[in-house]
Amino acid sequence: METNDVEHYKRRLVELRIEHRDLDDVIARLVKDPLVDELELKRLKKRKLMIKDQITRLESKVIPDLNA
Fold first, then answer.
1. Tens-of-pLDDT digits for all 68 residues of the chain?
2. CA-to-CA distance for 33 and 25, rounded, in angstroms?
3. Residue boundaries of the structural domains of the chain
């Protein structure tokens, strides 16, 4: 893997972690709201899960496999 690729993945990881944390904050606030749009809340949770999956995939590309 090239150095440019690794740097790109690392930058993307930072972006995704920030978005994941922001979504976590929004979801936590919405859960407390009795008038929350349940469909919107479900969409945000799904988006957060997708981001978590992306983070996991990128981490596996950046962190070398110790078993190899």
1. 677 888 899 999 999 999 999 999 999 999 999 999 999 999 999 999 999 999 999 998 887 765 65
2. 13
3. 3-59
